[in-house]
Amino acid sequence: MMANPLRARGGIKPAHHKTESSGQAIRRVPLPARLVVPLRQDSQGTARAIVAVGDKALKGQLIGVPEEARGTAVHAPTSGTVVGIGPYPVPHPSGLDALCVVIEPDGEERQIEHLRLDTARASRDELIAHLQHSGIVGLGGAVFPSHIKLGKGGVDTLVINGAECEPWITCDDRLMREQSGAVLSGARLLARLAGAQRVLIGIEDNKPQAIAAMREATREVVEREAESAVSVSVVSVPARYPAGDARQLIRALTGVEIPYGRRSDAFGIQCFNVGTAHAVHRALDHGEPLTSRIVTVTGNVERPGNYEVLLGTPANELLALCGVRPGTGHVLMGGPMMGFALPRPEVPVVKATNCLIATSQALFPPAEAEQPCIRCGNCARVCPTGLQPFELYWFSRARNLDRVADYHLFDCMECGCCAYVCPAHIPLVDYFRYAKDAIRGRDEERRAADRARARFEFRGFRIEREKAEKAARLAAKAAETRAAQAAAPDGQPDAQALIAAALSRAQAQNGAAAESPPLSPPPES
Amino acid sequence: MTNPPYIHQPVSIRRVMLTVLVALIPGIVAYVYQVGAGILVNLSIATVVALVAEAGVLWLRAKPVWVALTDGSAVVAAWLVALTLPSIVPWWLTVTAILVAIVGVKHLYGGLGQNPFNPAMAAYCTMIVAYPALMSQWPAAGHTDFLPQLHLILGGSRDIDGVTGATALDALRTGLRNSQTVNNVLNNDIFGVVGGRGWEWIALAYLVGGLFLLARRTITWHQPVGFIAGLGLIATVSWLIQPERFASPLFHLASGGAMLASFFIVTDPVSGATTPWGKFIFAFCVGLLAWLIRVFGVYPEGVAFAVLLMNLFVPLIDMKTQPAVFGYRDRKRP
Ligand code: SF4
Ligand code: SF4
Asked: Fewer CB atoms inside 10 A, N or C side of chain B?
């Protein structure tokens, strides 16, 4: 029953910097002066605002409904007044503004009546729909809607990701230590919804307390319900970045390698983050929509730690509470390996915000100047996907897009291990993103060209068809005139003949249309 | 500070090159001890010329001079060239060899990281073709007097008696040509325990340096093991079949540039294969070819030619040995 963690290949072991923030219990932060809640909170689409400026909202009240089946709902994180709806800066690497609802809290935290579900009785579809309406998305950072992941079913193994392999981040660690029971019941709900018979909870071995807490919770459940349909094991996996990547963790726990281009449910496995499991428990067992999350605030701050933060809280206010030290530069959202620098300090905390790191020159020395690749192969040694990053780099530089795709560029998960170890300080991930964009752009261009050609060819076809029809008409007309002339020896067509000719013309036309060579439009590609 | 990752391992090309230089020191010390301090003069000449040539070419190519000059790659190339030439060649020969390596092989192909051929080996081959006589006068082990060596290096008349001696590979070759058996030849006092007297200790010192590189993970086991396996395998087989005609594998491994080659030459990342199996195959073939050239070719030491030949096959080897990508292990490679 207990899966043995398999030795993984590649990966790195950067300084973990976990102890800065992992020592203290999760704290709540005071209400900010205003909350800026983006209407796009999942990877699928932007919700439609159903409140107007001036409206009062209660905590947990629906303020944005999904435009389509794949989207998720957005809720007011606290009670207050809607004071603005419009584009505001959001935490996205592009730095572009996005549609947000701005709420001024009234400080009363009045809650909307929670919809209580009887989870034991409710049907699977009802529960999954409820997740969508509760705004449940992957809290590991990818914010993929959970209801889509669960939608298909057909899964036998549910992997719960508590690896948390990126340096500095400890929000999942704290959550597992403090809320192990809630995480576990969320995991069991997820297993039921996914149809899984076993749950594997993978935690890196540098979090012994979290492992102990989860094991204890599991033991209690087993004692309580001796006959459980689902088996749960907590597996400690060797600490190594990126052990917490879903496919890497799945491999460590089950031995199944899922190509980066495929979805895991095709292999009967589905993976959720521990934070997501917790949110699922809150949504289904308590009817609470997702309006807050645990955020690790760390780096160059006086009071690093984990905080329960309302979505929409401005990042700079949160950081200020933790005492930003002098000499702070950019603020990173997410970890230092795959996160990004916030475009503006005041962007709100969103469902993807697992960690905010205040950087400083000392903690994050700037990257050194890029030098030529010496083909030392260090990058290939650490690539968890087994790619040859330097080959990808040479081909990207040469803009040899076909070769770079042949060398599995699209299996690169952009984990950054290669760039981390490169002695030539080459920003390899930048090159790979650039090449991916270039290939996608080219493919898009090709498709557009194909469409244009198809359109053009169809136009040619139409012109041809019209010509053929015209020719048939003219021929019929000529024949009819000839026939009329022949019928009237004095050279004047008589009425009888004209009528006959008109009939035959009509027939000829019908016939021509029916018998004309099968000009079929070129297939739309 | 714009794009991830925002943290980096404290590594640099300079550090890699420095590690290689450090790893060469045991070999150089043994060299000085066994053969004399002449090698130090050659190393100095080579270093200075390499740095000047590197700076000059970078300046001509309008590239930033300082970063590239201090990355250490020119010095590593210079030391490897100097260590593969006989240590009593006249200074101008060392200078020419360095110019071939740095200007001809490294920069004409685009600079650091771009050269398809191993610079040191290309320089060695050019020199042995151009100056076969000078290139086969090796100092004799034990004759460590510095002044006669310096005299020769500075271009003095090549009165070489008492300074030079036949190398082990040379002596074996000549002996076998004169229809002696291997055992007869090896009875000569220029031979030591397994290879050339004195030279075998230098080989051992290179091995020590090589193990250091392995321990520091500057190189991986693939090339040294591949080279030793390639050379050792064919030498063992031939020796088992005809011990009177073919020298033992130990002799081959301890003689000539075998140890230098296995840890410092076939491990050159730039001109060698890069995939794990590719590295092994590349080095294995070099070892095999080196033996063939030693035994059947016209030049006594075959490593250099073998390396250049295999450099040509690197793209093919790399292409055919791409490791399986995560999730595609059971499928055909592209
Ligand atoms: S680690 Fe850097 S220098 Fe080494 S092969 Fe990879 S890209 Fe080239
Ligand atoms: S970023 Fe891509 S190429 Fe680099 S180590 Fe990660 S998966 Fe491999």
From this structure: C
Q: State pTM to two decimals.
A: 0.85
d(CA A417, CA A400): 23
Cβ of A409 closer than 6 Å to ligand 2, yes or no, is: no
Contacts of B212 (CB under 8 A, 6+ apart): B22, B23, B26
Q: How many residues would you count in chain A?
A: 525
- The one-letter amino acid at A47: A
Residue A257's φ and ψ, nearest 5 degrees, are -100, 115
A340 touches chain B (CB under 8 A): yes
Residue extents of the structural domains in chain B? 8-165, 167-326
Look up residue B159 and give its two tokens: 């009165």
pLDDT of residue B321 exceeding 80:
yes
Those residues with Cβ within 8 angstroms of residue A30's Cβ, 6 or more apart along the chain or in another chain? A321
ipTM: 0.89
Answer whether A274 contacts ligand 1 (Cβ < 6 A): no
pLDDT digit string, tens, across residues A19-67: 999 998 999 999 999 999 999 999 898 999 999 999 999 999 999 999 8
B170 pLDDT band (50/70/90 cuts)? confident
Under 8 Å between Cβ of A202 and A160: yes
> If 0-12 CB within 10 Å is exposed, 13-18 middle and 19+ buried, where does residue B164 land?
middle
CA gap A164, A241 in Å, rounded: 9
For residues B175-211, one letter each, b for 16 or more C-beta atoms within 10 angstroms of the residue's C-beta and e for the rest, the string is bbeeebebeebbeeebbbebbbbbbbbbbbbbbebbe
Question: Could you tell me which residues are beta bridge partners of residue A292?
Answer: A310
Q: Is it true that the peptide bond before B132 is cis, omega within 30 degrees of 0?
A: no
Q: Provide the pLDDT confidence category of residue B177 given band limits of 50, 70 and 90.
A: confident
Question: What pLDDT is recorded for position A183?
Answer: 96
Residue pair A8/A243 in contact by the 8 Å Cβ criterion: yes
- Are the beta carbons of A74 and A41 closer than 8 angstroms? yes
- Residues of B within 8 A of A378 (CB-CB) are 11
Residues 65-104 of B with CB under 8 A from A: 67-68, 71, 73
Distance, C-alpha A363 to centroid of its chain: 30
